[in-house]
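Hi everyone,

Forwarding the result from last night's run.
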Amino acid sequence: MLILLTGGYTCYAMTPAQKRAKAKEIQMRKREAAKKKAEKQRAAKAKAAKKKRIKEGKPLLYIYSYNLQTGEPLPATFITAQDVNAKPNRKPKISKATDAKHARVSKGLPAGNYWIQASRLGYLPSDTIYFDHRKDEDSVHISLYPETRLTFTVTDSLTARPVAANLIVRDPVGRRVLQTTSDSLHSLIAVLLDDRVPYYTIDATAVDYFPVLDTIVTKPLTYTGVVMTPREIKSFVLYNIYFATGKTHILNTSEPALKELYRFLNERPSQRIRIVGHTDNIGSERSNQILSEGRCREVRQAMIKRGIKASRIEIEGRGERDPILPNTSDENRQMNRRVEIVLL
């Protein structure tokens, strides 16, 4: 819109859209000016802080942490301490990096020699980094590697029950990764491994058992546990062997138990055994006697088919004569239905 003014001057009146654009431009200029001012203030503040750190003898140290596999920043917990030889009474300091974008902490520390470690749940502890901190804004970069957790059992070779044993897991150069003790109630053991290491060794010892030295291969990680063999045994129950109800037929679910018995006999070529069968008191005494003999015969035949000589295996049916618990409940009767292995 053209407007004529006194004195021969002319000007143009702004439209509403032009006014909005002008106001927006003014606001942007103000924000830019405020931003520059804030940056200038931050720079001045940082300069003053740096001058103060240098004056106090506490140059700034940045500590960064990363995922070694991906290279991405990984927030972690850091432990920082001065060399104990230089500062024997100096306690370690613990700090956490929670910023997932940068995964770092900054610390004003007196110049000197430091050791630094990083840790995070689900990752192996980092190597110890030794650092000579002298300059302001020094930086240390620490990588963490995801852990591999292995759980395994310690069991009796004959009964598959847990064994109380002393265990030592070592890496290929002999360093101890784990030293622990299993108990006879819960033999499940957990250990953190580094799958970049090709293998670990495990040394297991227990009272009345032969020592075991085993190898844990990390790729693929298929290790299931330590199996310990008793030094002196006279008899044991063959657990987890199942028969069809009232019959001598061995069910397929008994295969693991049959494999264990075969392994026991195969590792001891001179060992002779007697397979003793027991039943509960359901049915007549005569039928139970015949049933126990038939079941023993089936187990013996299963071993012969696997290659064990028939002359090494005797059988004896005891029927219902030797219960280990009163036949007063289903649970007790189940315990009384068993196959026992007697060493000859």
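The two ends are 120 Å apart (CA to CA).

Cheers,
N.
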